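Researcher: Next sequence.
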Amino acid sequence: LHRRRVLREARQLRLQWTAFDKALAQPAIREGLEKKYQATDTMSLKQAMLMQELQTRPFLSAWISRYTSGAKPETLLGTLTQLSRRPPVTTATP
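Model: Next structure:
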């Protein structure tokens, strides 16, 4: 049950990565996000946005902290990609 939930939440969060491109393509939205995250390059903005979205999913965030190397902006997309394919098998719950 927990593995399915991690799989579902990781896939949902991973899909937002491409949605961020649409938001960043709009100059007014991008300007606001650049101020909010104090970054101007697209990759840094998307990473910051993804980290913020992860914080809205406490179960997935706890799972990543416990069963992976942790949630870092630079590696979060890769971690989500791995989890969306197959989360690690565990006997304990986060």
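Model: The longest helix spans residues 2-24. The two ends are 12 Å apart (CA to CA).
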